[in-house]
Design a protein that fits this description.
This is FAS1 domain-containing protein. By secondary structure, the chain is of the alpha+beta class. Helix content is about 30%, strand content about 20%.
């Protein structure tokens, strides 16, 4: 999970970086459409030309997964959401795709929906949503990359947990926190939403959490060191469900253990305002469900120098909170 998490956040940040570059030239898109036509992907070639002025005018980089002609014959012209599901604003060379572990999510132009890697680096072929892509790109100029696929991706695809397959259970594992991720993205917390998506791929559905989510701007300013991505998420997550009404009941000096070993969130008050490691809560109860609470912050919760950054909440905290009862820990 950690490897998948780090790589997928790298993809998200790459998307942000490439958004600062110049848009793809129209000539590049037209050249790609011509090559698609010449290699037998006529329907997708025509589709790419049709959407180039409306769907792609501000695209700075792009990876396209092009269904073959029989897919169009069988399904007809795709809807706009289905078409967007086959476009990613990230340039994804084959070497990158081959290196991604099972379960890594690739953001698409269909808002809030991602493709899921269903192959592993040891496999001969790369598959997304259980659909294999061509062994090499049809077109690749570094910023626009196009792969062929035999069929359209399924919008309702749900990632399958490899552990379930090994046990012969045959159970799919949908992300129960997708709604929360959508809410976060809609109000400017996309980076933490991506962290949450990937964390949930390996988390049991019964796990309760409280997430303290910094805004995109402060997250992107803070994520300068690739090796620190995982700890950034883990130190903002408490392994129990704490509403705002629970937080305000805690006494000053209460320390909440997090999923980052050795890191606690200390509750204090300043002028009557509740503070978490001297950071005020900006958006209490941004999202609520039976399993999850998200509170918005405008700053990150900093790690002290020399602190060991390893994952895992304390056993004492886990066992004490199995019943979702907030406990006043004062160390």
């Amino acid at each position: 999970m950690a490897s998948s998490l780090l790589i997928s956040i790298f993809l998200l940040l790459s998307q942000f970086i490439f958004s600062l570059s110049s848009p793809l030239p129209t000539e590049t898109i037209l050249d790609a459409a011509e090559i698609l036509s010449d290699t037998g992907y006529i329907s997708m070639s025509l589709t790419l030309e049709l959407v180039s002025d409306t769907l792609l005018p501000n695209s700075h980089s792009l990876t396209v997964f092009a269904p073959a002609n029989p897919a169009f014959t069988h399904s007809g012209q795709p809807s706009l959401p289905l078409l967007q599901f086959h476009f990613s604003l990230l340039p994804l060379p084959l070497e990158t795709l081959k290196s991604l572990p099972y379960g890594t999510e690739i953001p698409t132009m269909y808002a809030g929906r991602s493709l899921t890697v269903t192959s592993s680096p040891s496999d001969d072929r790369v598959s997304l949503n259980n659909v294999e892509i061509t062994e090499s790109p049809i077109f690749d100029d570094g910023l626009l990359i196009i792969y062929g696929i035999d069929e359209f991706f399924d919008l309702d695809f749900e990632v399958r947990n490899p552990l379930d397959s090994n046990l012969g259970c045959g159970l799919s594992t949908p992300n129960p926190f997708g709604e929360a991720s959508g809410v976060l993205r809609s109000v400017g917390y996309s980076v933490m939403a991506q962290f949450l998506d990937l964390q949930m791929l390996e988390t049991k559905k019964s796990t309760m959490m409280t997430v303290f989510a910094p805004t995109d701007q402060v997250m992107l300013n803070s994520l300068s060191n690739y090796s620190k991505y995982s700890s950034m998420f883990l130190r903002h997550v408490v392994p129990c469900r704490l509403l705002w009404t629970d937080l305000v009941k805690f006494n000053d000096g209460t320390a909440l253990p997090t999923y980052l070993d050795g890191f606690t969130i200390n509750i204090t008050r300043s002028g009557g305002i509740l503070m978490l490691n001297r950071v005020p809560v900006y958006f209490p109860n941004m999202y609520l469900s039976d399993l999850l609470v998200v509170h918005g912050l405008r700053q990150t919760l900093a790690v002290s120098e020399g602190m060991q950054e390893t994952a895992g909440a304390s056993d004492e905290f886990r066992s004490s909170n199995e019943g979702n009862v907030p406990v006043n820990y004062e160390f």
